[in-house]
Amino acid sequence: MPMTGVLRPGHAVLRVLDLDESVDFYSRVMGMKETGRDKSGRVYFKCWDERDHNSFVIRKADTAGMDAFGFKVLNQATLYRLESDLKAYGVNTERIPAGEMLETGERVRFQLPTKHTIELYAEKTDVGNGMPYINPEAWHADAEKGIAPIRMDHCLIYGGDIDGNKKLFEDVFGFNLVERVLLEDGETALAYFMTCSTKAHDIAMVRHGEDNKLHHISFLVDSWEKVLRAADLMSMNRVSIDIGPTRHGITRGATIYFFDPSGNRLETFCGGYQTYPDCHPITWTWEDVGRSIFYHDRKLNPAFLSVVT
Amino acid sequence: MPMTGVLRPGHAVLRVLDLDESVDFYSRVMGMKETGRDKSGRVYFKCWDERDHNSFVIRKADTAGMDAFGFKVLNQATLYRLESDLKAYGVNTERIPAGEMLETGERVRFQLPTKHTIELYAEKTDVGNGMPYINPEAWHADAEKGIAPIRMDHCLIYGGDIDGNKKLFEDVFGFNLVERVLLEDGETALAYFMTCSTKAHDIAMVRHGEDNKLHHISFLVDSWEKVLRAADLMSMNRVSIDIGPTRHGITRGATIYFFDPSGNRLETFCGGYQTYPDCHPITWTWEDVGRSIFYHDRKLNPAFLSVVT
Amino acid sequence: MPMTGVLRPGHAVLRVLDLDESVDFYSRVMGMKETGRDKSGRVYFKCWDERDHNSFVIRKADTAGMDAFGFKVLNQATLYRLESDLKAYGVNTERIPAGEMLETGERVRFQLPTKHTIELYAEKTDVGNGMPYINPEAWHADAEKGIAPIRMDHCLIYGGDIDGNKKLFEDVFGFNLVERVLLEDGETALAYFMTCSTKAHDIAMVRHGEDNKLHHISFLVDSWEKVLRAADLMSMNRVSIDIGPTRHGITRGATIYFFDPSGNRLETFCGGYQTYPDCHPITWTWEDVGRSIFYHDRKLNPAFLSVVT
Amino acid sequence: MPMTGVLRPGHAVLRVLDLDESVDFYSRVMGMKETGRDKSGRVYFKCWDERDHNSFVIRKADTAGMDAFGFKVLNQATLYRLESDLKAYGVNTERIPAGEMLETGERVRFQLPTKHTIELYAEKTDVGNGMPYINPEAWHADAEKGIAPIRMDHCLIYGGDIDGNKKLFEDVFGFNLVERVLLEDGETALAYFMTCSTKAHDIAMVRHGEDNKLHHISFLVDSWEKVLRAADLMSMNRVSIDIGPTRHGITRGATIYFFDPSGNRLETFCGGYQTYPDCHPITWTWEDVGRSIFYHDRKLNPAFLSVVT
């Protein structure tokens, strides 16, 4: 089969400081659909054009940040094979029983070298995108409720041993390196952008002094005009914008970085190129690092390297 | 590895009636880059953002139409495995030696049940997209030469046994069915849209009285505004437009159908959703067939079902 | 003062066959705001970004078509001056008292040589666009309710003596000719596109065997992406589309023609150039008439010249 | 006539430090067409879709800045009438003979209360936009050479007595106030945005300690996608970007501020609403001044109030 193994980013679980405020933000401003709440207090959301029950989960905590990032794999056999491959690679894994997350099958959980928690799962209930599988329309009203991203797309994580991360994603899961940024020495990587599909990134990682940090969770919108619409809605709702609208040099995507009420950074973006396993990776050297991140400003804003949750 | 086997449509080989006129059309109007000519008279083109040496090849002939449609596979071992799988499936295969097409490795050729010639190959020289692999720009001048599609994207073929085609693509290559259109009886398929990736279609097929016919070769552009730009350039160059700009119900892509000087139908399109192997296929029934093809007009134009090369 | 006299198209009054169905269409599908109903049964609408109380009025009748097209003039003194100028030009005028239309001042009504009823008025209550005049936002939710045009923009009328119309608009009101289409003889005009501002047309007229006919009322949307959105919403609501999305050669605007439930043709469009009184008019000759109207199809569809209300 | 008096901004004359570098910048990067050079060393440019011979003129000098900003008036009689009106208003005027600027008629020059030099003229040779006045196309290749704005659109000037400026533009020329920004006292204006047409601004002015300063000359592009394209081209050419892409609260336009090689600030923008003489002006109070200028960042960048030439 052409696409096997890990299919795509499936869910992000984030910590928020005030649950009601956050539910209002993610449902009304972001325009995601709340699909459920569980006994432990987690609130589940999906983007309008996603079909699985949830892709974004929040829980109340004393500090913001990310609990876990999940990838959907092809099927249950793949899940067990990858669990076995992880163990053979020397990684401890843990099974979380089906149903511990709403409408989600058994999960295999492990830690990256950067101490981020990753989860694999094969099953999440298809609740549809609000349109029938027979004779659908092109889109429906939910596509214009709030910012209304199409899908939760990827995450950018910060931590120490990103080389260990990269090796694990390559060796165990077969991810491909799409782009990388080098530090002043011309050898050490500042950042890796990796994919399990044709997306320019399914996960990205930046070298950082502290492990298990989140830089941002990213959401896809349809077009540059929708990026502007997102920025407008952020201003109308007095959402804190970090930077944008602008373009990344890396992946060429057009973007806005902004913050949820707890200070977790989010991204809405569109565009960027598509990649394949036979594509030569792109390298950015230190003298062009500004342009690699923010193609128009051509310099890093201080927040990019320092503000994480 | 997440993406294995067949990676993507790699090249289309078309017959044209007048080579000079066609070279002018594909280079100046379509804005593809001519990358070479071979001893047998074939002229090779690539789209600006493609990295492989060629994706579109024309040769002079007495009738228009498609000689072959090629898919790139992951590597040489995959090529031989798929050759073996084809044979095991009962399909005759033929090896074409490396170099028979410019900058292209060994090909494995076979016929679909609809008599279309399909080629698999693993190697095509990476000539780049005109930008370096170190510190590139977001795009360059070639992105605005003529219609300037990003890539050759997919084909739609016409023939009799599309059920046989579908079974072969599923069973041997692991393609997924993304959408299908049913005839009046509610059972027989008029059309299948299949993918080996997350694209809504890498190949599509429509049931037709005559085998080995081409409906169109499709090229991707960046945005709906680029679709308008393409339509403008077609008018400025008095290119024959079949229909559009408009939207498809199937895949949701926004599109123009038009003809090359020999009468081969081409498409420029943007957008459409992305799919994964776990996505439930979409079905269109006969009463909505018009809307499935042309979402705005909601009726087929007579040419759609009859004009093929 | 730079802008004096006639300011802009201010209201169109149309006849519809079924009032409830039409109110639903204009409010829910078109996304106009109903601003009132009067004792005579007329229903008043405005576009979201218009500030005056109404720009589009419908009444129930046995036949579709246009009762009157109104232009707003600078002030009451201008109204009386233009009334006097019309009389001096030999045109009969009629005063309609303030309040006969809701929130609308005194009107001066007269007939064009093509028998269309034109109304001038200076006063219509400013009800705002839903945003304050102090510290407003960039737009608000009404901008995404239905097709949500920005404004009623212009009309295209059909009738016999369009030369008489043109002369009147030029000599009495100082309109400028922006574009014209010539018939086969190279002399007789098929169509005139005229402006009282920098819009490429505030009113247009086509030569036709029958007087007092309406070709379409046109509504402005923000962008080509909003034109696509409009076409999508038309299909979702099974609105009858005449043609489009496409581009006009004349004015360069990008457009859709479609029909209200009574058969009145409407247009949503974006773009087109801006003109000034010192701009040389553009002429289209008969051999390019197709391209002048539908820039991509480069031929008239039969409906363009025949279907009017 | 509906449009009389002052028609539009017609030309800006700027000082640059290095002529060759500036010619390269304005022709290759900005994509304006050089239309001539005169004996005094001035170089003349026009935007692709402008029809008059020039709209932007540069000359070499030791300091950057603006020599003069010109408005085209309806005709020669209007020119002399406005000259007479200026004198009656107490303003000294100077006649510059026809031909002193290439292909430009007699000019009437005067100083604003803020000491900026304004010129009125009625004649500038129509050299066309590269397309015929008979059966033109929708656009041509020059529309994609460099940033390729459609037209020089307006200027923003800095100086002391902006109230005097406003009164002069209103009383002598009949300009309308479209938007204004108030200082902390809620009475004093920080800025006025004024129009002689339906554009949201033909000239704008900000209160500043030093007279005769230029904040920026603004150029119109077609769409938000063209704004992105402009920002991309700036980065490709290492042009210094001040801010953007972003949106203004005032006028709602979407924009980039950037600098020419001499440090003169330029703007490319799209969109914004259209206004009429009967439209109530919009007021921004001090607490929302950030949002009024930069709608997304909601704060002024320090350069906005301090960097002028």
Model description:
Four copies of one chain form a homotetramer. The first copy, chain A, folds into two domains: 6-144, 2,3-Dihydroxybiphenyl 1,2-Dioxygenase, domain 1; 152-306, 2,3-Dihydroxybiphenyl 1,2-Dioxygenase, domain 1, CATH 3.10.180.10. Chain A is 19% helix and 34% strand. The first copy, chain A, is built from six helices and 17 strands. Chain A has helices spanning 19-29, 76-89, 162-171, 224-236, 289-293, 302-306, and strands at 6-16, 33-37, 43-46, 56-60, 65-73, 94-96, 107-111, 117-121, 151-159, 176-182, 189-195, 203-207, 213-220, 241-247, 254-259, 265-270, 282-284. In chain A, the strands form two sheets. The first copy, chain A, has a nine-stranded mixed beta sheet. In chain A, a hairpin with a 5-residue loop joins strand 7 (107-111) and strand 8 (117-121). In chain A, 56% of the residues are buried. Chains in contact: A-B, A-C, A-D, B-C, B-D, C-D. At the C-D interface, strand 1 and strand 17 of C face strand 1 and strand 17 of D.
